[in-house]
Specification:
about 700 residues; alpha/beta; TIM Barrel; Immunoglobulin-like; 3 domains; 8-stranded parallel barrel; 8-stranded mixed sheet; 22 helices; 29 strands; about 30% helix; globular
Length: about 700
């Protein structure tokens, strides 16, 4: 049984309750019998970090703690009760995974449970807790012991012993280990972290702040207020520097052992939110520290089942942005399938939304010097226990469809990524709360303008097609000139209209230019190299206003407690401006087709126009009518997805029924049925 297909990596995030201690091979054979393929790897999810921190060799057999034997020491899943694993059992399990060609990673979180199931290692080292306004929680892996030595040095030595003794092929970390889980505004302002900050930046902390009772909630509040008003950007960048240094030490040692690091890194955020909110620079984690794999945490569907907002586009757009920013390393999306401990289940309760993830997320592409590549390299199945053979078959069928053919070109305009604009945004956002590239992308996605292509500025060629550049004014001067001279397609831009910015300064004569009319902080939009069919229709949208509040004091705007429920504070961009920009982005491909529903169009190698038709109504089927421009004739429409089951129907009169016309010569409009909250995919073959 070989690995899957070579076009995607499939990992299984497996809590111990998903294996079977009673079997001689610890359940590896039964797992493979279900999957019917060999996953590239598995996170042997031992959950509690004490599996590493308390490791003392394998000379003596010891029983593992309950919170190592299942996720949060959960008593059972669909199949079995929690089993009492020993360190020798884990060694046998790891040996069997290696023999079957499944790379085993030791999987841990940073969560501690206040000695609920065993005397925890950190209880003897309380100086290493995170101390936040809400109290202590988890291990802050960036801190130092009382004697001044760094936790990371101890961790690296313990991890080395674990990797060598058990034969793991790498480390997989998630919640509360990296990232820590709280906003950089909320934690950790202990004497230790302030001292590290002062040593790194040269910024002096007042004696008055240092003499406060260390780690008390009121102390954290006072110190955080001072940092946030006096040196916010420096604090955020310091935190990112510390994380990069931590992972550089870990990765250097792992790579010496021919092992790898697999890091969550972000928590439902894009690269900018990850930097500002969590203090991690994803590019530096990959390019400088050497992290091998990041796990974008696309959890919009799963967390919406628990009552949180369905921020689908906000989370989905982390895929292209993370890949463009890091420009290296692997990205395995955390595919939320089910979790018996957290008690949500996409596989059985929302299979349409799960199918949407499997189809939509691999559709994001990046233009590189070597051609198009996917922005994700595969999936990490979360979680992989309790999935039966027929359910694995259902998953495999959708993996096959999503990872086989790669489009050769996006017909929607391609997003442009700039490292310079990314780093220039931080000080500007702090002062103005202007929109990030990510914010523009997901707000326009909600209005039906979705692109599945991105390109780094240095990879732009005259074959890059139509481009979208958000925050043009934040680009480097070289990048601005590159884009001003671009003639490979239309260029659609936004920029701050503050501080006298004008496209004329770069020799750009826009085919259209407009500004937001309903906010104190004005953005502008402009486009060039673009034939606009109905400029008046676009400009007419600008008059529409909405009740989004204007931030009167952007610098002091309240920060959000978490990104799962709330959005970062942003200055108002009115609905009229957004709608005009969304319509402008559709201007070129509407020469091929129009639809009231969101359609992501791409060109396939055989010439077909692949259309991913999206339905954001999670209650009802969509009847998406797509009209092809009269300059084309439709030769054929092939249904690629598993639904709709029957061939599409054609009618220019809007009449569709059980016996509708399936002959493409009968009209220029066809109907695609899309399941509730889902995606249907068709390939359209045209002739002039």
């Amino acid at each position: 049984m070989a690995n899957y297909y070579g076009k995607a990596d499939i990992f299984a995030w497996m809590p111990m309750i998903g294996f079977d201690r009673e079997k001689e091979d610890k359940g590896v054979g039964a797992f493979l019998e279900r999957t019917q393929f060999t996953p590239d790897g598995t996170s042997v999810f031992l959950f509690h970090p004490d599996f590493v921190l308390q490791h003392d060799g394998l000379d003596k057999e010891i029983k593992l703690h309950p919170d190592n034997c299942s996720y949060y020491a959960s008593p059972y899943n669909e199949e079995r009760c929690r089993q009492d694993w020993t360190n020798h059992d884990i060694k046998t399990l790891v040996d069997n995974l290696n023999e079957q060609g499944i790379e085993p990673y030791v999987g841990i979180m940073g969560i501690t449970l206040d000695d609920k199931f065993h005397r925890e290692w950190v209880s003897d080292h309380p100086e290493l807790y995170y101390y936040a306004k809400e109290g202590k929680y988890a291990i802050n892996v960036l801190k130092r012991f009382k004697d001044g030595t760094y936790f990371e040095d101890f961790f690296v030595e313990q991890l080395t012993r674990v990797i060598k003794d058990y034969g793991f092929k790498g480390l997989h970390v998630a919640d509360r280990f990296c990232p820590g889980g709280f906003h950089t505004y909320q934690t950790d302002f202990s004497n230790d972290m302030l001292d590290q900050f002062s040593q790194h930046t040269g910024i002096t902390i007042s004696q008055e702040l240092l003499e406060l009772e260390d780690n008390a909630p009121e102390t954290c509040e006072k110190r955080s207020q001072w940092v946030w008003k006096s040196c916010r950007a420096q604090w955020i960048l310091f935190t990112a520097w510390r994380w990069t240094g931590f992972w550089k030490k870990v990765c250097t040692r792992l790579h010496e052992l021919n092992a790898k690091a697999f890091v969550l890194g972000m928590y439902c955020t894009d690269p900018f939110e990850t930097l500002y909110y969590l203090g991690l620079d994803l590019r530096k984690l990959v390019q400088e520290a050497g992290v091998d794999t990041l796990m974008p945490n696309m959890a919009a569907n799963g967390i919406s089942l628990t009552g949180r907002p369905w921020n689908y586009y906000k989370q989905a757009n982390m895929m292209p942005l993370t890949d463009a920013f890091t420009n290296g390393g692997k990205k395995l999306n955390m595919l939320g399938v089910k979790d018996s401990t957290e008690q949500w289940d996409m596989l059985h309760h929302e299979p349409v939304l799960l199918e949407r993830d499997i189809s939509f997320l691999p559709s994001f592409m990046r233009q590189t010097p070597g051609g198009m590549k996917r922005c994700i390299d595969g999936f990490n199945i979360c979680l992989a226990d309790g999935i039966y053979k027929d359910e694995w078959s259902w998953l495999r069928e959708r993996f096959d469809r999503s990872f086989t053919k790669l489009p050769v070109k996006s017909l929607a305009p391609t997003y442009v990524w700039s490292d310079a604009a990314f780093y220039n945004l931080l000080p500007d956002y702090i002062q103005t709360r202007r929109w990030s590239m990510h914010k523009f992308m997901y707000e326009l996605s909600k209005l039906g303008s979705v692109s599945n292509s991105i390109v780094r500025t240095e990879h732009i060629t005259e074959n890059s097609g139509d481009l979208v550049v958000f925050n043009f004014d934040l680009l480097s001067e070289e990048e601005k000139q590159l884009l001003a001279n671009y003639r490979g397609g239309a260029v659609i831009c936004t920029a701050s209209a503050e501080n006298g910015f004008s496209p004329d300064a770069y020799g750009i004569t826009p085919d259209i230019y407009f500004e937001d009319q309903h906010t104190a902080y004005k953005n502008c939009a402009f486009a060039y190299n673009l034939d606009i069919e109905n400029k008046d229709a676009i400009l007419a949208l600008l008059s529409e206003d909405d009740d989004t509040p204007v931030l009167e004091d952007p610098f002091n705007a309240p920060e959000i407690p978490n990104t799962l429920r709330f959005e970062m504070p942003f200055q108002k961009v009115s609905i009229g401006f957004r709608k005009a920009l969304a319509l402008l982005m559709k201007e070129n491909y509407k020469q091929i087709f129009t639809s009231a529903y969101t359609v992501i169009p791409s060109r396939m190698e055989d010439g077909a126009v692949r259309m991913m038709v999206i339905n954001d109504d999670r209650m009802h089927y969509a009847k998406a009518d797509i009209t092809i421009n009269n300059r084309y004739s439709i030769k054929e429409v092939k249904v690629i997805s598993s639904f709709p089951l029957l061939p599409v129907q054609f009618s220019d009169k809007g009449v569709f029924g059980f016996f509708g016309n399936a002959d493409p010569k009968s009209g220029h409009t066809f109907r695609v049925l899309v399941p509730q909250g889902g995606i249907s995919i068709v390939d359209v073959y045209l002739e002039d």
